[in-house]
């Protein structure tokens, strides 16, 4: 008997997890690619003759992928249970790929090249929605896949890799967009009287208006194609195989990952919890579903995506040097503190990280709120407070929420329950992102917009405190527990 047969093959485990993690990278890539492309895209459609491309349509076009995300997350449970985790991820990869090609050339087959029309705008948005469905699928199924192949002592760390990949994917696309732009000029767009937009430098920005934004979208085809091809080389998860009666193959994969003795034990545990392929959603009571949904709601309701999406605008309003430079610095902080979670989640557990992170975020949000209404405090206090807020999220709610969502649900309801939880995440992402600017720009008497700044961050701070209380009272610690232990835990608590 070989050593790897006794102890399991870590190299094999890491290789299949790294493939799944590319799904997380694509998640980050697809949601952030619009940041570099949106000005060129706006300028292109401003040239349309058959309709006026105003704020509303640009807002819908910039966020159309989010609609797809909600759809993708909503159907992920059905697809994961019906076709398996692996095939569902392949579907997501194909959608990423087709969306990248379609967003590059939305005119394909039906429209003349380079002529902006309302019909072309609809076609472009449909391609972005398709990519969003891929993101929604990947955001639900990648952590589920990793959780179902990983041994219990490594599960938290390996699922946290997925969050790292999301943040890394966002940074990669910022860099790719920067390289694509190169020496070319972005369009300068100004709102004129009557709410009509005008391009101030159409000649200088011609390349970006006609071509540049297309290259940004199509760049995603490279990681999407790689992800799809590599998925054919990884196995289905042993949990899914056991649930569908393929015990021989399940044992084979478990042996490769965990070693022979441990594999038989894990398979017996899986079989003991699988009375049928799927059970009704509330078989284990309402609390487990409520906890899963609220983990997702709090992850978004603390306001993180509003801060990430609008970071340059926030830093600009503080009047502190180059806002883009501070945004890049925040990106580095985000990566660093996500690594903190990866290295501590199995030592410290899920609950302590979530509670400490919530309190750190509350402190950071309070710092920004107080700075907004106090002239005595220098702007650097607000910058540091935003960094504290963002760092606290990155070692807690960012990765740990995904870890818990992938592991707290019993085997037989995991697909459906994860789908519901992740759908709520995307819905609240949309709510927070769309309400941030109206709240942030609220004005009151002599305080002006400072009132809106203080109110918004004060509200997020209160939500952070509520999140800490929720975790303390209702969320179970899952460190070191097998996925099969979850069935026993919720059966007991029902």
Quick synopsis:
The chain is mainly α.
Give short descriptive properties of this protein.
about 500 residues, mainly alpha, Growth Hormone, Chain: A, 3 domains, two-stranded antiparallel sheet
How would you describe this structure to a colleague?
This protein is an all-alpha fold and 494 residues long. It folds into three domains: 232 residues, Growth Hormone, Chain: A, CATH 1.20.1250.20; 34 residues; 207 residues, Growth Hormone, Chain: A (Up-down Bundle), CATH 1.20.1250.20. Helices cover 76% and strands 1% of the residues. The protein has a two-stranded antiparallel ribbon with strand order 1-2. A hairpin with a 5-residue loop joins β1 and β2. α2 packs antiparallel against α7. The radius of gyration is 23 Å and the shape is globular. The protein starts with a helix and ends with a helix. The mean pLDDT is 83.
Radius of gyration, CA atoms, in whole angstroms = 23 Å
- Give the ordered list of helices and strands: HHHHHHEEHHHHHHHHHHHHHHH
Looking at the structure, the CATH topology of the largest domain is Growth Hormone, Chain: A
Q: Strands of the largest sheet, in order across it?
A: 1-2
Structural domains: how many: 3
What's the CATH H-level superfamily name of the largest domain?
MFS general substrate transporter like domains
Question: What CATH architecture of the largest domain would you give?
Answer: Up-down Bundle
Task: Count all strands and give the number.
Answer: 2
């Amino acid at each position: 008997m070989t050593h790897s047969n006794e102890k399991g093959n870590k190299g094999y485990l890491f290789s299949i997890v790294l493939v799944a993690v590319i799904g997380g990278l694509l998640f980050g890539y697809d949601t952030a690619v619009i940041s570099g492309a949106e000005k060129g895209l706006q300028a292109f459609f401003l040239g349309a003759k058959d309709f006026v491309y105003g704020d509303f349509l640009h807002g819908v076009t910039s966020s159309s992928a989010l609609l797809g995300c909600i759809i993708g997350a909503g159907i992920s449970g059905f697809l994961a249970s019906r076709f398996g985790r692996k095939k569902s991820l392949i579907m997501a990869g194909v959608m990423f790929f087709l969306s990248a090609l379609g967003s590059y050339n939305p005119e394909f087959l039906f429209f003349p090249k380079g002529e902006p029309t309302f019909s072309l705008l609809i076609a472009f948005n449909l391609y972005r929605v398709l990519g969003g469905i891929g993101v929604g699928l990947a955001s639900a199924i990648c952590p589920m896949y990793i959780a179902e192949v990983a041994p219990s002592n490594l599960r938290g760390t390996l699922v946290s890799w997925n969050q790292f990949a999301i943040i890394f994917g966002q940074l990669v696309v910022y860099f790719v967009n920067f390289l694509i732009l190169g020496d070319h000029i972005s369009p300068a767009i100004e709102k004129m009287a009557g709410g009509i937009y005008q391009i101030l430098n159409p000649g200088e920005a011609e390349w970006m208006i006609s071509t540049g934004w297309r290259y940004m979208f199509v760049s995603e085809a490279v990681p999407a194609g790689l992800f799809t091809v590599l998925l054919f080389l990884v196995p289905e998860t042993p949990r899914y195989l056991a649930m569908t009666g393929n015990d021989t193959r399940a044992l084979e994969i478990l042996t490769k990952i965990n070693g022979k003795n441990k594999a038989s034990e894990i398979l017996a545990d899986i079989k003991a919890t699988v009375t049928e392929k799927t059970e009704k959603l509330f078989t284990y009571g309402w609390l487990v579903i409520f906890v899963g949904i609220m983990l997702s709601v709090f992850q978004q309701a603390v306001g993180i995506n509003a801060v990430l999406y609008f970071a340059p605008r926030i830093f600009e309003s503080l009047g502190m040097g180059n806002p883009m430079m501070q945004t890049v610095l925040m990106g580095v902080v985000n990566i660093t503190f996500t690594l903190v979670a990866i290295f501590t989640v199995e030592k410290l557990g899920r609950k302590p990280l979530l509670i400490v992170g919530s309190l750190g975020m509350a402190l950071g949000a309070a710092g920004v709120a107080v700075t907004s209404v106090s002239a005595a405090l220098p702007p650097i206090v607000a910058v540091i407070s935003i960094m504290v807020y963002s760092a606290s999220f990155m070692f807690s709610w960012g990765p740990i929420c995904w870890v818990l969502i992938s592991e707290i649900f019993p085997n037989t309801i995991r697909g459906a329950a994860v789908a519901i939880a992740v759908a709520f995440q995307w819905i609240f992402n949309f709510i927070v992102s769309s309400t941030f600017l109206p709240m942030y720009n609220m004005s009151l008497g002599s305080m002006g917009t400072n009132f809106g700044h203080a109110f918004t961050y004060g509200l997020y701070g209160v939500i952070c405190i509520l999140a800490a209380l929720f975790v303390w009272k209702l969320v179970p610690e899952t460190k070191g527990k097998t996925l099969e232990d979850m069935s026993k835990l919720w059966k007991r608590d029902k």
